Structure formats: C-alpha cells, structure tokens
Write the structure tokens for this entry.
Amino acid sequence: MSDQDVDLERRRFLTISTSVVGGVGMAAASVAGIMYWTKSERALALGAPTVVSISRLKPGEQMVTLWRSQPIWLLKRTPEMLKELVRLNSHVKDSMSDESELQPSYAKNQYRSIREEIFIVIGICTHLGCSPRHKKAKELGADWGGGYLCACHGSKFDYAGRVFNGAPAPSNLKVPKHHFHPDNPNMVIIGVDPKDEGAKS
C-alpha cells in the first residue's frame, strides 16, 4: 500500500469522524434549544393570570383555584363574617394591613378586599409555607368565629387572612393582585392589577 493510499484512508476516517461528532453536537444543541424554549413557554404559562367564575359561590362558601402553582382561596363572606372581622381588630397583629407588601393598595383595609363580601388570598402560611385549613365558627371553641388554622405550629388567621396575636406566623396571609372583570362582576382575574394594561382582558 502506498503513502498516498494511507493518506486517503486517513482523510476519509477524519472526515467521517468530524461529521459524526459535528452531527452529535448539532443535535445536542438543538435539543437544548428546544428544552430552553419549552421552559420559557412553561414559565410564561405559570405567570399568566387565572380567570375564575364565582357565580355559583354561595354566602359562607369557599372555593380553591391555582395561580403560579399556589392555592388561591376565594371566600364569599356573610354579613356575620364581616361583623366578626370588626370585632377582631384588637385580636390580630396587623388589623389595617399596614404591611403593604402583603396586599395590593386596593386591598389595604380591614376586609383586605376590593368588595367586602369577596375575599381572595394565597392559602400559604407566612410562617413555614404550610397550607392552613378552613375552620368554621365554634370548631375551635365557643369564642372561635371562624377562619383558618395552620396545624403545623398553631397559627390562626381570621376571614380576612389576618394573623392572630401570639401566633408564630409573622404576618397576614398574602392577597394576590386581582380584579373583577368590568363586564362581568362574577369573573375574577387573579394575577393582574385593575390599573395594569393586561387588566383589559
């Protein structure tokens, strides 16, 4: 075999090897690009607003939905529940929602809501991130007017998500951005402020 034949064989081998390695690299880059794009789409979807109908929600009832993988509670409060909130002002840590980062400005009141009867909150305890349980009036004793109990360490919250004095949770439950659809008061859009451009949806 001549030197020329050896050089040709070697050249073919190097050409094929380079092509194979390049092809594998291109495939890996393409898969990575597709995965990155998919993650971006998923991230956008997770951050998108959630639209919920409360048309079937009766006074005293609560429903649960998800927004950004977090449980969102929607409670239709009765007149009795609203009166109980006024009575509890001196029993909770932050009765008038002075900690502004825990709710939008339009929910900075003792009811922590836009409409007094409709309460919307993220159902995650501000202590260690557990999810409190709904406990109806008198379920935790004769003086219990109803609200939420985090069984992990005993933090209690009223029907405005305000934490009771002496509880280990440092602050009230968080109220998400939300607004009622301008053409349908029974449609709630969670994740968008009324003033945001996206609120036109």
